[in-house]
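[recover] target loaded
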């Protein structure tokens, strides 16, 4: 099973991917987590992307594709994956298509978590207090939401136009959202025969 988990900052991508990974035995590939690990390690990539992330802007498509190719080359990705945080613009959506065709692992479905903006802001403010993620301050959250609207939301139409997008209600308790996702994944598998 190869899934893109899609949605705005704070919609629950990381939370839900963590749960689905266990349940479905898939690799959880979060580009945000990979980048934060690089920043923490102080690697050359980390040094390049730190300021961009703290401003809530997108890291360059070239760097992201390189990072993603490296991750897909790891053994666990061959058994299926949940991609969280990629693609984030149309260029990345096309790059992903090409990459997955080359490794003969086409996407099964893109799942969109829909959450109203005031709830996103509330969740991220909660996490800012609990975890201190540097890009969860109010100014950067605003920038991230704007980047999502302008650059990332069009990617949903890209998958919708190909009949690969399933939109879900991302509000409610974590377990409720998880059940909705599992139901959507179940019906995808069923319709694929
Ligand atoms: P990334 O790490 O992908 O961040 P994001 O998309 O902004 O999303 P978040 O991780 O903040 O939210 P989430 O949807 O995972 O929600 P979560 O489960 O954590 O990217 C960070 C940065 O990296 C980008 O800004 C960019 O600079 C760079 N980057 C990454 N990928 C890139 C790419 N492809 N191209 C270019 N640049 C890239 O939940 C949020 C909070 O809500 C948590 O506290 C959680 O506990 C809580 N919560 C979750 N679900 C519920 C629920 N049902 N009820 C109540 N609370 C909930
Ligand atoms: Mg996340």
């Amino acid at each position: 099973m190869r899934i893109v988990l899609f949605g705005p900052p704070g919609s629950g991508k990381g939370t839900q991917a963590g749960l689905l990974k266990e349940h479905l035995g898939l690799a959880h590939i979060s580009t945000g987590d990979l980048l934060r690990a690089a920043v923490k390690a102080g690697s050359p990539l980390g040094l390049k992307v730190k300021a961009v992330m703290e401003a809530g802007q997108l890291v360059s498509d070239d760097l992201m594709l390189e990072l993603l190719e490296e991750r897909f080359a790891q053994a666990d990705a061959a058994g299926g994956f949940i991609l969280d945080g990629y693609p984030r613009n149309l260029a990345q959506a096309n790059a992903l298509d090409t990459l997955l065709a080359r490794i003969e692992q086409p996407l099964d479905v893109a799942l969109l978590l829909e959450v109203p903006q005031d709830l996103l802001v509330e969740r991220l403010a909660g996490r800012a207090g609990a975890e201190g993620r540097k890009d969860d301050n109010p100014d950067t959250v605003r920038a991230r939401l704007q980047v999502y609207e302008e650059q990332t939301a069009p990617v949903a139409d890209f998958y919708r136009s190909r009949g690969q997008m399933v939109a879900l209600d991302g509000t409610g308790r974590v377990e409720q959202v998880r059940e909705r996702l599992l139901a959507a994944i179940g019906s995808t598998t069923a319709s694929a025969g």
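[recover] notes: The chain has a mean pLDDT of 96.
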